[in-house]
Amino acid sequence: MSEVKLEDIVSLCKRRGFVFQASEIYGGLAGFWDYGPLGVEIINKIKATWWSAMVTESDNIFGVDGAIIQNPKLWEASGHVAGFTDPLVDCKNCGARHRADHLAGTDSTNLEELTELLKDKACPTCGKKTLTEPRTYNMMMKTWVGPIEDDSTVAYLRPETAGSIFTNYENVRETMRAKLPFGIAQIGKAFRNEISARDFIFRVRELEQMEMQYFINPKDSEKVYEDWRAFAWTFLVDRLGISEKNLQWHEHAENERAHYAAAAHDIYFNFPFGSKELWGTHNRTDFDLTSHSKASKKELSYFEESTKERFTPYVIESSVGVGRMFLAVLADAYFEEEKDGEKRIVLKLSSELAPYRFAVSPLLKNKPELAEKAREVYAACKKKYGNVMWDDNGNIGKRYRRQDEIGTPKCVVIDFQTLEDNTVTVRDRDTTEQVRVSIDDLISK
Ligand code: ATP
Question: Which residues touch 55 (CB under 8 Å, ≥6 apart)?
Answer without folding.
Answer: 61, 62, 63, 185
